[in-house]
């Protein structure tokens, strides 16, 4: 449970950084930032695998680059679910999803998953 909470907080921090850069992604008030990070995580967990399966031929034709478009689409759709979270354009969704993914990966890699010795 603690591991999930820390990773969620890393996602919140990454989304906050993306919102503060000024690329067209905003989340006001702070509760919408927390909710947006949660909805993005849930969308990536449950909706993204289904969409990847449905768009597999297109993903193969583009050598996997369509995955970036799929991530941007999910990032863009979250604004319709979370009040206060806004993405201004498709370009902002693409850059925001890439930046959030990179920052989340970086922050999660800094966490040590050392096995506990008994």
Summarize the topology.
Elements: H1 2-21, E1 25-27, H2 30-54, H3 56-61, H4 66-81, E2 85-87, H5 90-110
Antiparallel strand pairs: 1-2
Helix pairs in contact: 1-2, 1-5, 2-4, 4-5
Your description of this structure?
The protein has 118 residues and is mainly alpha-helical. The chain has one domain (6-109). The chain has 5 helices and 2 strands; from the N terminus they run αβαααβα. The protein has helices at residues 2-21, 30-54, 56-61, 66-81, 90-110, and strands spanning 25-27, 85-87. Strands 1-2 form a two-stranded antiparallel ribbon. The longest helix is centred in the middle third of the chain and has 25 residues, at 30-54. It is globular.
Summarize the entry for a quick read.
This protein has 118 residues and is mainly α. It is built from five helices and two strands.
Mean pLDDT comes to 92
State which percent range the strand residues make up.
5-15%
Structural class of the secondary structure composition?
mainly alpha
Number of domains: 1
Question: With helices defined by DSSP (H or I, 4 residues minimum), what is the helix count?
Answer: 5
For the report, how would you describe the main beta sheet?
A: 2 strands, antiparallel
Radius of gyration: 15 Å
Proportion of helical residues:
over 70%
Identify the quaternary structure here. single chain
Query: How far apart, in Å, are the first and last alpha carbons?
Result: 20 Å
